[in-house]
UniProtKB/TrEMBL annotation, chain B:
It is found in: Mitochondrion inner membrane. It comes from the Eukaryota. It is a multi-pass membrane protein. PROSITE patterns: ATPASE_A. CDD domains: ATP-synt_Fo_a_6. The chain crosses the membrane at residues 6-31, 67-86, 98-117, 137-158, 164-184, 191-222. It catalyses: H(+)(in) = H(+)(out). One of its GO terms (cellular component) is mitochondrial inner membrane. Pfam families: ATP-synt_A. This is ATP synthase subunit a. Keywords: ATP synthesis, CF(0), Hydrogen ion transport, Ion transport, Membrane, Mitochondrion, Mitochondrion inner membrane, Transmembrane, Transmembrane helix, Transport. It comes from Homo sapiens. InterPro entries: ATP_synth_F0_asu (IPR000568), ATP_synth_F0_asu_AS (IPR023011), ATP_synth_F0_asu_bact/mt (IPR045083), F0_ATP_A_sf (IPR035908). Component of the ATP synthase complex composed at least of ATP5F1A/subunit alpha, ATP5F1B/subunit beta, ATP5MC1/subunit c (homooctomer), MT-ATP6/subunit a, MT-ATP8/subunit 8, ATP5ME/subunit e, ATP5MF/subunit f, ATP5MG/subunit g, ATP5MK/subunit k, ATP5MJ/subunit j, ATP5F1C/subunit gamma, ATP5F1D/subunit delta, ATP5F1E/subunit epsilon, ATP5PF/subunit F6, ATP5PB/subunit b, ATP5PD/subunit d, ATP5PO/subunit OSCP.
Amino acid sequence: MLSRVVLSAAATAAPSLKNAAFLGPGVLQATRTFHTGQPHLVPVPPLPEYGGKVRYGLIPEEFFQFLYPKTGPYVLGTGLILYALSKEIYVISAETFTALSVLGVMVYGIKKYGPFVADFADKLNEQKLAQLEEAKQASIQHIQNAIDTEKSQQALVQKRHYLFDVQRNNIAMALEVTYRERLYRVYKEVKNRLDYHISVQNMMRRKEQEHMINWVEKHVVQSISTQQEKETIAKCIADLKLLAKKAQAQPVM
Amino acid sequence: MNENLFASFIAPTILGLPAAVLIILFPPLLIPTSKYLINNRLTTTQQWLIKLTSKQMMTMHNTKGRTWSLMLVSLIIFIATTNLLGLLPHSFTPTTQLSMNLAMAIPLWAGTVIMGFRSKIKNALAHFLPQGTPTPLIPMLVIIETISLLIQPMALAVRLTANITAGHLLMHLIGSATLAMSTINLPSTLIIFTILILLTILEIAVALIQAYVFTLLVSLYLHDNT
């Protein structure tokens, strides 16, 4: 930034340089070198998962470990507190009771609701992770489904010849059926024609027979003379009377 | 004793330099930012709380009002943390100083009013007259509404100052009462100590509520003016 100030000051001092001042920042950026050193923190080191251990929420464990070879930390603490109280370095005032009550309420709250809040925070984090996990699983499942569909399609392609055989059989059957139908029709037509001829023959024969019978009857009737006719009729009447008497006698019984 | 009572409200100085600046700048150190998705428990709970409060507060505003969301959320976090930190023994609460509360209230309130007057001047002026007032009362009512508008920043600042200061004073007084009674009569000391504990719980609630009320009112003024 100061370099820009220098450049603008130089521009005002020498007006001929004013046009060059436009190039100034670009030249500056070109001359500045980036990414020269060794890249450190690559990859970024992971954060520790749990914080350092503390006792009483305030004093790290390392403090206790540091003191143990030399002196007991609790004795040191008690000694310091008693020293401060007795020499009135720490004065018991109204503030002391306020402090006691505030710290007491805080400790009570932390002891009682601490695990609850911790579980809640863990649950929130777990929900986030579960969401991402679910997205990943859904994607994997989707791809797996696609793979399975593809495999089944490939398997189906192997069995395609069944389809073709069935189609071939169908077509052969249809052709056979059509052939037989037409054969039957041909048979029927031929029979029709032959029946016609037969019936024509029968009719002719019947007609000839009838004609012959009629001719014979006519000639027979013509040959019967009238004398013969009368004799025949008289005989018939006598026969009928006889029969009538016989018939009348039967039912009386 | 009088000098001791108000001693905790003097703006602290270190060798003549104001330490109040350091004290005001301290609370953000307790709110870690993180660029990771999964954080430690502190960051997770704080992020969840901030999300909750911001959603709760900003739903009632329109798009123009929501441009204030950063301001309002940082306001409520600042006031809540400074109030709660002031409950610790021998600590200084910046919000007990009227100067600081005025410095917070006047610009925010003036901002909302000026925004209202710039964008929708008729609506902003209409706030001066409630609906359905009988005609003879109108001039008086306009004056009253103007006064009530102009008193809003004062009320915001003085409300916060008075509540927090009164709470601290009460705690101090009852603490000194227990101190005095501890040499005279022990059972009454215990009673007074119980009162102190209850008062502490109240103070914690008041600390949070005052932050909430301050921010809520500013957001209300914003809602009127957007």
